[in-house]
Design goal:
The protein has two domains: 221 residues, Rossmann fold (3-Layer(aba) Sandwich); 67 residues. It contains eleven helices and eight strands. The radius of gyration is 21 Å and the shape is globular. 38% of the residues lie in helices and 11% in strands. It has a five-stranded parallel beta sheet with strand order 6-5-4-7-8, with helices on one face. It has a three-stranded antiparallel beta sheet with strand order 1-2-3, with no helix packed on it. By secondary structure, the protein is of the alpha/beta class. The longest helix has 19 residues. Keywords: Hydrolase, Membrane, Transmembrane, Transmembrane helix.
């Protein structure tokens, strides 16, 4: 096995003369592949974004994905494609599992310390931080500002937490139909959420003890979120968790789906997807992990345990580790 192939360079090295003027576009375009290769799951890791994502008052600009139902990804051949001098570059799950194989010295080390061969991926929402209550608080504050009633019904709260803001405003709460007013309400909702989020200074109960044990065992960890990078670094620092995570995947990485974020985390940890274990509380995230050939640990919280099994079975991804 050639030990020179690392996660920072997934394409075999080429002569320097051919790369003298090459450049990768800043925004690889999302493509849908032909049915012939529809089984492939593609991801291309993009560089971090610019620093213009912050407002003058120090608050991060509101990301559009906080109150949006994200795509699971890794289905029907979706993926990223970018172009090089020698043609398009496509990276799928099988490619990553092949290129991120351990070299000889790594195999020797992992034979002595098998735990280090794995990589752990933690979702930010409700696994690292209790964002469920923060989102409900943001909705309550918005209702108070707008002079609206906010229902405490459990079923409605569940819809609010796991449905896009557009649908909640139009169909669940029936507050507004006009597009311009919807945009104003969504923007204000996100601002309220961020204001609550920056006050958060403690992780989910029991997480720090678990990360301590994992850190002692030498297992690399990654955290994935749709939030911006600066906030994630500051928040992890405030919670005292920053030292535990060797990789962070945020909005700036440009991932278009949950599965893409998981694959990006695997590359950053230098672990092949099949050796990664995802910690998630959402059945959609569990499905995305299995679509990427990863193992998963489902945390029971907002969703009963049987929901995860039913959801996965409906997508023919029925196994839970």
């Amino acid at each position: 096995m050639d030990c020179s192939i690392r996660s920072s360079s997934l394409v075999p090295p080429r002569p320097a003369s051919r790369l003298g003027t090459s450049s990768v576009p800043a925004k690889p375009r999302l493509v849908r592949l032909k049915p012939l290769i529809a089984r492939s799951r593609l991801v291309f890791c993009r560089a971090a974004g610019s620093d213009d994502k912050y407002l003058g008052n120090g608050f991060p600009r509101v990301t559009s994905k906080v109150f949006v139902e994200e795509a699971i990804g890794a289905e029907y051949g979706e993926g990223f494609e970018t172009f090089r001098m020698d043609g398009p570059l496509k990276v799928d799950v099988d490619y990553l599992n092949d290129k991120l194989q351990e070299c000889f010295l790594q195999r020797v080390r992992h034979a002595m310390k098998p735990d280090e061969a794995f990589g752990l991926i933690f979702s930010w929402d409700n696994v690292v931080a209790d964002t469920r209550s923060l989102k409900l608080d943001a909705w309550r504050q918005l209702a108070s500002e707008e002079g609206k009633e906010f229902s405490s019904d459990r079923h409605i709260n569940k819809l609010i937490l796991h449905t896009a803001a557009d649908h909640v405003l139009r169909k669940v709460l029936c507050w507004e139909e006009e597009e311009s007013e919807l945009e104003r309400l969504k923007s204000r909702l996100s601002q309220l959420y961020y204001e609550n989020l920056i006050k958060l200074d403690a992780p989910v109960e029991g997480l720090k003890e678990w990360l301590d044990a994992v850190h002692t065992a030498g297992i690399p960890c990654a955290i994935v979120s749709c939030l911006d990078r600066r906030y994630m670094h500051e928040s992890l620092q405030k919670m005292g968790l920053k030292k535990y995570f060797q990789a962070i995947v945020t909005e700036e990485d440009g991932m278009e789906s949950i599965a893409h974020r998981f694959l990006s985390a695997a590359v950053k940890m230098d672990r092949k997807p099949s050796k990664c274990i995802v910690f998630e509380d959402d059945p959609r995230g569990i499905t995305a992990a299995h679509n990427c050939t990863m193992m998963a640990v489902a945390l029971i919280g907002a969703h009963p345990a049987y929901v995860c099994f039913i959801f996965l079975n409906s997508l023919i991804a029925f196994y839970i580790t």
